Request: fold
Amino acid sequence: MKKIYRRPHQIRAFFVMMKYFFLAQTRNPATFAFGFLFPVVFISIFGLIGNSTAPLTIGFPATSNLNNPIITAIKQQSIVKTQVAPETQLEKDMKKGNLSGIISVKQTSQNPPRYQVNVITSTASPQTAADITSLVNLIVDQENLRAAGVTDPTITIKKQQLAGRQIRYIDFALPGQMGFALLSTAIFGTVFGLIYLKKALVLKRMFATPTRAITILLAQGGSRLIMAVLQVLLILILGIVAFKFYLPHGWITFVELLILSIIALVAFLGFGYFMAGLVNDENAAGPMVNLITLPQFLLSGTFFPITDLPNWLQPIANFLPLSFFNAAVRKITTEGGDFTQTIPLMIGLIIWGAVMYILAAKTFKWE
Reply:
């Protein structure tokens, strides 16, 4: 009696291969470094050093008059750090960028007491110079009013404060590290993983089995998806527990971040499949992968805002795939928006992914 062979069930083959690919990732040092170690180190550093405001460092020449109401009022300011040194030394420190400004007060009259305030600032830091000048003007105006005996000035200022949330650097950096981990997993892991499978003829043998080609690629993507979810969970839990990362809507925001991460990884995988189809050697893959990932790490708002870039470069940076993801994440975390506000950004990312999948379908080779 002739034996009948049945085509294997594709779902079972999918889960078996996904398990294999996932275990292979756990044994890959690059996955651990780019997906887990680097983001954790970056978040820890940014969380520790990114929450303090730099004080104004003001120097007083040692030969100047330090016993006057102007100097006394400046020393009482909480945002000011002062030092007394010879004027030549203070000027050297300012040229090196270690000093915000130099202030000296000269008494021009004893009765009534009159003072002349000399302020020296650096042209290298216009914002700091403006801050020092504003501070000195405020103190001088207050002392002039007091010296004139004015207790009820004609014009007064009414101060009012609204409750708000301080935006810390960790609130900016953590979304960028999520994108860093996802893009690294989708491109570095996929490209070098598939190249190894090609060189070892594993893909060729798989393709020779009754298992469909799409099942093999879906299993590869599914394993990356599990790894990416673990990475995002680690980054979010570390940020929330260790550095009080702000989730505007609690667990709803948490779930929204996971959904955005899944969509982003699926889109980024298109880049990985496309580049894995173009090269068959690790030496050729390295420069190509860096050419795609490095500009996005530097220009997509991962470590610093895109608005800090030159004006001509900002439109290009805003159009990068990682920029769409970083902006979408910050839309629902830093800005406190809802998921619907990220739809235009995610559409841009999905279009990038669709283009890459189309190109990958035309270039991908099994050996």
Notes: The longest helix spans residues 169-199. The chain has 13 helices and four strands. Strands lie at 56-61, 80-85, 101-109, 114-121.
